[in-house]
Amino acid sequence: MTTAAIIRMRAGEGADIPLKGVEIASYLVLLVLAGAAWLLASPLAAVSALIGGFVVILSFQWLKRDSLRLAADPSRGAKIKFMFKCLGRLVLLGLLFYFLVRYQRLHIPGFLVGLATVQLGITLTTIIRAKRLLA
Minimal CA–CA distance to 107: which of 59, 58, 52? Predict the structure, then answer.
């Protein structure tokens, strides 16, 4: 992959996966889910969904940044560095989730709904893109 292609991907032009669209869809899904949690469950469930959503969106953005760097420099050293960063991110997220659930008063189902926002954002972006391609 050339440097120009990576720059286009960062800008969201011509990318096979519209990463900017995934981020926007994830934020929209998070707002809808938090609003639904507020109305259907409780304010605590909505705040828990927001916390879970922001954590997973931040993790997604961190992974996107590291993946673009790896695409720009696919050398063996960069691959090893990428793998260690991924492992570190997983450990950090595991510790963060442990402390959030263990020591904070969270609504666990709301928190889990928030963690699904990026997955739902990817699904929504894929459906929208498929409709455009098939229309």
Answer: 52
